[in-house]
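From the pipeline queue, job 12 of 40. The input is one protein chain; the requested action is below.

Action: predict structure.
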Amino acid sequence: MKDLDLQTLWVYLAASPLLWLTATLVVWQVALWLHGRLGRPALLNPVIVTVGALIALLTLSDTPYGVYFEGAQFVHFLLGPATVALAVPLYRLRAELRALAMPIGVALLFGVSVAAISAVELARLFDADTEILLSLAPKSVTTPVAMGIAEKLGGIPALTAALVVLTGLTGALLGVGTLRLLGIRDPVATGLALGTAAHGIGTARAFQLGPREGALSGLAMALAAVLTALLLPSLLDWLGLAV
């Protein structure tokens, strides 16, 4: 009887859109608490922990992603306002950004080019076919833009989306440590590197370092998406990939 009651309760909760929204928010808060409690280690980045925990919950409960998204789509909706809110720290740094306009532009140009070229050439070493190469090329920009670029180029948007998430998680996990290993501690350089290489997830990591890093990362994320959309067809043509 007890098992039947629990099963009935689970069926009721699973049918409620608020279940997965609540689960997402609770897991995120726990991940934040754990991250701070253990001294903010890179391996326990809250985004990575939250993604892993939610995947485990969906797998254990045999819940399709569509059901999860129906409940948690409000979080997805908030991505828009959150992206617009990045303009606030940028506005506060407007004088510094004007003074650094030229070096920021050059850094972004090289960052976008290296991100695309390195991904394509590394995949070529493993004899990846053209469709895979075209899917890899925009993997360092934010998901909606990357999927749109991949579709236009003839890649696989779903594969690109997965690669974008993987790139962001890797950047959040290893980016700061790699920069420090190279002796790079400047907040402007750190923010630009994380935003260019690891888009939104990298920007979340940058804000954990400080407001300057976060603001510069948000700027880099936005401009890198625009530059990638504009430059990628020419870069791929230069690499011998017809698009």
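Job complete. The two ends are 62 Å apart (CA to CA).
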